[in-house]
Amino acid sequence: MGESVAVRKLMLSNVPREFSVLGLPVHLSDDCSGWLLERLQQGLGAHVVTLNAEMTVQASENPALGSAIRQAELVVPDGAGVVLYLQLLGQKVRRCPGIELCESLLHKVGQLGEACPIFFYGGAPGVAEKAAQLWAQQVPGLKIVGAQHGFLQPAQQQEFCQTLKQLQPRVILVGLGVPRQEFWIVQHRHLCPQAIWIGVGGSFDIWAGVKTRAPGWLRNNNLEWLYRLYQEPWRWRRMLALPVFAWRAFLALSFHRKAVS
Question: pTM score > 0.70 for this model?
Fold first, then answer.
């Protein structure tokens, strides 16, 4: 059993390269969604984390979150701070927004049809359902087997877990926010071991039309976080993590330059 899994891993192409950002792994690839599709076809599951500066700081203060990120098979550079850090280390890297990674993957798995059932979990009541409906219309080949909001009572949570176990979706999008979605995925991956589990944050809100993404010119200039702050002013406390990340990154990069000089 162990040998067959090892062989299948070797068969995967375009394996992401791993780097470290303040002690956390970040994986770089020209085609992350293609790599995830290969894992699906080889019967291998994965946990995908979309890393930004805020999450990096949270992980330094919350060992459980740091552990969850380190266990993930794919950690993509979602935030501008993470991208800049890697660029200053000399890596050619582009930002990989989690929402765009999910969109690319959904378009690709739409070609698999019945072989790749998908589940949407999280968000406020009705939001995951609307997001699922949008994707069902946009990609007719998608096999969406369910959508469930993220406000479940303990008894409902147990029932939901049994539903997942019975359905065995191959792609599970979890929109519970950081760090709750990361913890939830780590705790429940055993229910669907061959699935791709992705923490999607507020993507359901955008797909459902509850919120909008930043204009392209802001995204292209790594200022999407500023637009989110405009939409959700209460996030200002969380944004205090940005200068903390910047200071720690400065110290880490200074140490790195001294070490290699």
Answer: yes
Amino acid at site 165? K
Q: Report strand pairing: 74-77 vs 117-122.
A: unpaired
Distance CA 198, CA 257 (A): 34
On whether the CB atoms of residues 118 and 143 are closer than 8 A, the answer is yes
* Cis-peptide, bond into residue 117, ω within 30° of zero: no
DSSP for 205-254 reads HHHTTSS-PPPHHHHHTT-HHHHHHHH-GGGHHHHTHHHHHHHHHHHHHH
Residue 154 identity (one-letter amino acid): P
Tell me the pLDDT tens digit for each residue of 176-222: 999 999 999 999 999 999 999 999 999 999 999 999 886 777 777 66
- Cα angle value 61/65/69 (rounded, 5°): 125
Per residue in 221-251, pLDDT (tens digit) is 667 777 777 777 776 577 778 889 989 988 9
Q: If you ran DSSP here, which 8-state letter would residue 131 be given?
A: H
Q: Alpha-carbon distance 154 to 108, whole Å?
A: 35
Buried b (16+ CB within 10 A) or exposed e, 144-153: bbbbbbbeee
Rounded CA separation 128/47 (Å): 20
Q: 165: helix, coil or strand?
A: helix
HSE-CB for 193 with a 13 A CA cutoff: 2
Tokens of 190: 């055993």
Kindly report the backbone phi and psi dihedral angles of residue 35, in degrees, each rounded to the nearest multiple of 5, phi listed first. -65, -40
